[in-house]
């Protein structure tokens, strides 16, 4: 089901357009992040004359896929509306180690105050995009689509889902509002798969996905006319059988594989013919990209 939302992007692939709604969210995220860091005032920046201006560059220290330019732009816009940022890359670009990403010219205090906040956003989102790109490359020529999940960093849901697109992946549902994902506890509370799907159809005209753990539940989900069935922790062999079963029935639903899938056997899962593979690790098991800001010259 990828249910890409207008909150995330108006287009897709490696350089997604940022919607007006996401721009509003970026401004709020940046304001909160700056407040968290600056609080009552940056006493360190006061070491520098308030009229001093400098040139600085942000450099990546390892190969990466870029994501998060808009967050960096917003950090320095809020600190110095006259800050000049000359980007050498765009979101979605794969860059080598030691490449200059952006050159900044502006108030020195603003450069120093915004440095860590800007790098925090850029290193986190670029890390997400880089991890996604590495996974997408493994199944690039196969029809299976790679999806994210709701296992995102707190308050960075839309940001990481944007980074997912920068890495060449696809968005699953954005949250609890734009699609149904009926899981084990929902099924228990509703009294069964059929009852849960029936109630979902009455509540809203949204995609309905059902998570199943065995073939009995798979048959129930198909009979209930689920749009997508998530195969939770199925073996490669059982995933293949599920694909063959759905194909023999005229493909009444799409299949999504999920649960303990890693890069080492991602391709095997995709080769079964499932429509989607969702992986929480793409957004929660990330290691920040190594970035640094370096001052180049004193202006005046």
Question: Could you explain the architecture of this structure?
Answer:
The protein is α/β, with parallel strands linked by helices and 300 residues long. 40% of the residues lie in helices and 19% in strands. The protein has 10 helices and 12 strands. The chain has helices at 20-38, 69-79, 108-138, 157-166, 184-190, 193-203, 215-223, 236-248, 266-270, 281-284, and strands at residues 53-60, 64-65, 84-87, 94-95, 100-107, 145-147, 180-182, 208-212, 228-232, 254-258, 276-278, 291-298. The strands form 3 sheets. A 6-stranded parallel sheet has the order 6-11-10-9-8-7. A 4-stranded antiparallel sheet has the order 3-5-1-12, covered by helices on one side. The protein has a two-stranded antiparallel ribbon with strand order 2-4. Strand 9 (228-232), helix 8 (236-248) and strand 10 (254-258) form a beta-alpha-beta unit. Helix 1 (20-38) packs across helix 2, helix 2 (69-79) runs antiparallel to helix 3 (108-138) and helix 3 (108-138) crosses helix 4. The longest helix is centred in the middle third of the chain and has 31 residues, at 108-138.
Structural class: alpha/beta
Strand order in the sheet with the most strands: 6-11-10-9-8-7
- Average pLDDT confidence is 93
Task: From the alpha carbons, calculate the radius of gyration and give it in angstroms.
Answer: 22 Å
């Amino acid at each position: 089901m990828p249910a890409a939302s207008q909150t995330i992007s108006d287009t897709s692939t490696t350089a997604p357009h940022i919607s007006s709604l996401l721009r509003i969210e970026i401004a709020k995220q940046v304001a909160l992040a700056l407040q968290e860091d600056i609080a009552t005032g940056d006493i360190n920046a006061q070491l520098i004359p308030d009229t001093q201006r400098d040139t600085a560059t942000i450099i990546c220290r390892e190969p990466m896929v870029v994501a998060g330019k808009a967050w960096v732009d917003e950090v320095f816009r809020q600190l110095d509306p006259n800050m000049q940022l000359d980007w050498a890359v765009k979101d979605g670009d794969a860059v080598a180690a030691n490449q200059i990403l952006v050159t900044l010219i502006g108030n020195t205090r603003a450069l120093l105050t915004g440095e860590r906040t800007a790098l925090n956003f850029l290193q986190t989102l670029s890390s997400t995009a880089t991890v996604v790109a590495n996974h997408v490359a493994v199944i690039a020529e196969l029809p299976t689509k790679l999806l994210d999940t709701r296992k995102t960093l707190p308050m960075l849901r839309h940001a990481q889902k944007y980074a997912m697109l920068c890495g060449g992946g696809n968005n699953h549902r954005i949250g609890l509002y734009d699609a149904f994902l009926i899981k084990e506890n929902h099924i228990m509370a509703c009294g069964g798969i059929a009852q849960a799907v029936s109630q979902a159809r009455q509540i809203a005209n949204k995609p309905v996905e059902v998570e199943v753990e065995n073939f009995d539940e798979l048959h129930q989900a198909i009979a209930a006319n689920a749009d997508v069935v998530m195969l939770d922790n199925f073996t490669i062999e059982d995933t293949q059988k599920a694909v063959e079963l759905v194909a023999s029935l005229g493909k009444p639903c799409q299949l999504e594989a999920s649960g303990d899938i890693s890069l080492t056997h991602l391709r095997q899962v995709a080769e079964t013919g499932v429509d989607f593979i969702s992986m929480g690790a793409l957004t929660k098991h990330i290691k920040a990209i190594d970035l640094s800001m370096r001052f180049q010259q004193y202006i005046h």
